[in-house]
Write a structure and sequence with these properties.
Length: 456
């Protein structure tokens, strides 16, 4: 590819002027051109953050802001000199901490949500000095130290940050309110304060700092009684997974993952919340297919959760009809998403497993973040059901679970939970062929790596 290409992010926000002011305070952004519409709305504004360039506009009927569509699937990556200071400025400007700034083997970094629904991944510029209160990782013993993460998880489970926020600050009073041993709790909080999580202004008295305030957010999913506990505990099965390639979740918790969620609705609910709109992730309906959408009349969202993705697709394409397929408990909760999108009259539901025969005869069958939860055998079974339903005239589109051929494998929690695999495109071609499909198009899009299949 020899032609000159320029890619400029364009952010849509509800309140572009306020966003420009916010980005100036937080990131040091400077404004270039600004164009406004007849009612004063910003239709185009240019910003510079260091050597990066982006544009903004106010939301309208054509371009909704993230909070109008259930959240943005795009992460903005920004390298800065001092990520801790940037995080403080974001909070002071009305944003929130998604992941506190902390050290990792790749450097100091964190994740922030601005007040307008966009997510910023901030990291320290290469070669910058680490924050003085953070120790250097100098040995395998430091790398393998589990003390800090487990203390954080226990503090979150006991709601210590919430108790301190309510005015209970003494170790003995905190222990009484949390129903735990006073000596043990004081020791744990003293350790966390020394690590920069909580403050100890005087012996036995504790206060919140920015890191500890991150524990106030229920979206942190650190409670050991919910999905956070399952995800923390399953790492103990890693030796068996590495030896066999098979998940050991059932050995730790007594049941395979999906059966465990079915047996524990409270944990299932926390898993749904972690995944995004009712368990199916942030909707990203603006993906393209070969030949365009004009030839598509009916779409089946296979394993579509409670319908957020399908609702977005139908809302963006008024001539389209849709069918939502998922387990009965999921589709029973889809009405709210369909009503909010104004598509109730163009959608139906099928409460069933996607391992059973699917509603037949649609033009397109969508698998969004489904295959990445399953091993190869189940992946073939799901694809075969889609192929059977699509017949000779339909197609199958996959988002998630497939990566370019040059992408190296990376260990993920789904592997330990489910034995899941992410296939390279070449590997997926072989799996699709065994299911009666062939890949007709594949490539990166804003919605992710999109793979389109037709009948073999």
């Amino acid at each position: 590819m020899n032609e000159s290409v320029t890619l400029t992010p364009r952010l849509v926000v509800a309140g572009a002027a306020a966003a420009i002011d916010c980005y100036a305070r937080v990131f040091g952004a400077t404004e270039g051109e600004r164009h406004t519409g007849p009612e004063g709305q910003i239709v185009h504004a240019e910003l510079a953050i260091g050597d990066a360039r982006l544009t903004l506009k106010d939301e309208d009927d054509t371009d909704p802001a993230p909070r109008s569509t259930g959240g943005s699937p795009v992460l903005l990556m920004l390298r800065v000199d001092d990520p801790d200071a940037v995080a403080e400025r974001m909070v002071a400007s009305g944003g929130t901490i998604v992941f506190p700034v902390s050290d990792s083997p790749r450097g100091r970094a964190g994740r922030l949500a601005d007040p307008f629904g966009h997510i910023w991944m901030i990291s320290q510029r290469t070669g910058q000095r680490r924050a003085p209160e953070q120790p250097e990782i100098t040995s395998p013993y430091t790398l393998a130290d589990l003390q800090r993460p487990w203390c954080v998880l226990v503090a979150a489970t006991l709601r210590i940050a919430q108790l301190i926020d309510s005015g209970i600050t003494g170790a003995a009073d905190l222990a009484a309110a949390a129903g735990c041993d006073g000596y043990a709790l004081r020791a744990m909080l003293g350790y966390l304060a020394a690590e920069g999580i909580f403050e100890q202004p005087s012996p036995g008295q504790f206060a919140l700092n920015d890191a500890a305030r991150g524990l106030l957010d229920p979206a942190a999913f650190l409670d050991l009684n919910g999905i956070g506990g399952r995800m923390a505990g399953v790492w103990s099965s890693l030796p068996g997974y590495i030896r066999t390639g098979q998940p050991g979740y059932h050995e730790v918790f007594g049941l395979p993952f999906w059966e465990d969620l079915a047996a524990h609705p409270d944990i299932a609910a926390s898993f749904d919340a972690l995944m995004g709109p009712a368990g199916h992730g942030t909707p990203d309906p603006q993906f393209e297919i070969s030949g365009g959408w004009e030839q598509i009349r009916t779409i089946v969202d296979v394993g579509g959760g409670t319908g957020a993705m399908l609702a977005g697709i139908l809302r963006a394409r008024p001539g389209l009809r849709g069918v939502l397929v998922d387990l009965p408990a999921a589709v029973a909760r889809a009405g709210e998403a369909f009503r909010a999108a104004g598509v109730v009259d163009r959608v139906s539901t099928a409460g069933q497993s996607f391992f059973d025969p699917l509603p037949a005869g649609a033009d397109l069958y969508l698998l969004k973040k489904v295959l990445n939860d399953w091993p190869d055998r189940e992946t073939i079974d799901i694809l075969r059901r889609c192929a059977e339903a699509a017949g000779r005239g339909g197609r199958v589109v996959v988002l998630g679970g497939i990566a370019p051929d040059d992408a190296p494998p990376v260990l993920t929690i789904e592997m330990l939970l489910l034995g899941a695999r992410t296939s390279t495109l070449a590997e997926f071609r072989e799996l699709a062929g065994r299911a009666g499909l062939e890949v007709v198009a594949a490539g990166p899009q804003p919605a992710g790596y999109v793979v389109e299949c037709g009948p073999a």
